[in-house]
Amino acid sequence: MKQVYSLFLALTKNWLRTKSGIFFSFLMPVLYLLLMMVIPHEDVMEIDPIKHILPGLIAAFIAINGIMGVTIGVTEYKINGTLKRLIASPLKKREWILANLVQQTLLAVLLAGVMVLLSIPAFNARVYLPFHTLMMVFLGAITFCSLGIFLAGIIEDKETAIGIANGIGIPMVVLSGVFIPLEVMPEWMQTVTKLLPVHYLYRGLKEVMMMNNPPGLLKPFIILILFTILFLFLAVKTVKWKDL
Amino acid sequence: MDKDIVIDVKNLAKNYNGTKAVKGISFTVKRGEIFSMVGPNGAGKTTTVEILECLRTPSSGKAAVLGYDITDDAGKIKRKIGIMPQEFNTFDRLTAGENIKLMAGLYGNKSFKEIIELVGVNEFENKKFSTLSGGMKTKVGLAMALVSRADLLFLDEPTTGLDPQSRRETWKLIRKLNQEGKTIFLTTHYMEEVEELSDRAAVIIKGELKAIDSIKNLTEKYGGGVKLIVEKEEAKKLIKDRTDRVFETREGALIGIFDSKEKANMIVNKLFQMDCEFEIKKAGMEEVFLNLVGGRIDEGGEIL
What SS3 state is found at A31? Predict the structure, then answer.
């Protein structure tokens, strides 16, 4: 565990010193929140818009941080020799993956915290069930970080990483039901949306933190667990710890 | 295995998509020596060293590092060796000190301050890695290799791309580490580096070991006596008339190699008569390589 802690600290410090990382992970979600809250919603939503937008943006940016941040970041480490330097040490593959998961989880908790703390005074948001919410945030961070590590495991250069991360991340977030409510989507789009993990993260977060409805968490939680298992399995299989 | 042998390689081979990068090489490295593997780019140096560091899987053959099998005991080996990979890199937004601390943490070592001082990183410990010069980065790489507290260090082309002063500082440090009892496995394409540092060297070309011995024995066996370095055209012509073993340096000088002092002396007398300046040196690894391969390696590691 000492190795995981050392690497987690290094990853976090390195990330905190990246201006673009801070911007995309914290400032952009806040800007989106402010922007989306000033748009009139009455004609498309029956509920208070913050109940839809707050969990939606938290879910979307946890997904973006994992799919884009981790995929591009890990690919860069792979190409520039940083990963090789780590592999040459006694660090094990599972410790490397775990340190990344912990770092992304911390980032997701901070993101959710900032968004909630801003929404309470600014938009009169009422947030329920912090434990359940935190559990979903953890699970979401692990799911999308695993997906990012898996993608980085099969990508060989940074340009491809940027292309694939955008190609997967943006449609996934747009179609997730976060930006376009599921109810207004055509039927085929609803089917696609229901295949995306970010949709279940959004639904789960909404059920607990905004609707105070723990039983509604069960289905999204189980589906997200299944996605996590799949992505973690693929991440472990594709990350090379030899013959890099 | 002999207690004094820290690396034992037998018929080691590595193929990449049908290309034979390493072709069944065998050698040993003794405790306490500086062993150099020298060859041009693509000769198989890095592939060999990375197999020994457990970073690559061999296609065939066997190797033991510190008595552990590289295939079965990779975890044990990694804990007991220090590595500076080729084109070393690390977290560029962490400081030099933070990167060294990270590596110490990965080896489970708490103390690393004295290594920072030993290597001379203390002068720029708080600077971000991305802002460091090539020489400074090499020092960080060496410190990160040393925090393993290992007695066996693998340094893969540690001075490539460094300016002459940084290169000499790195050599000084490598010698110091060796004097403190560390065994050093070095790969390089700089012949001067091999001569300056190594106890023994292996010349590797296209995945095959062409020669392996002490520097003294290699130069005696393949170096072939004495070399004369001249710049004037008439002197160059004289040397070309007397020996076939000539090559031009990048600066435009001509180096002629003579088997014996007697032959070289005859030319020296002629050069005096012609009033031509010259330099005379004992033939070294440059000439060993020239004789074994039929070409020289340039600064970038390519055969001329």
Answer: helix
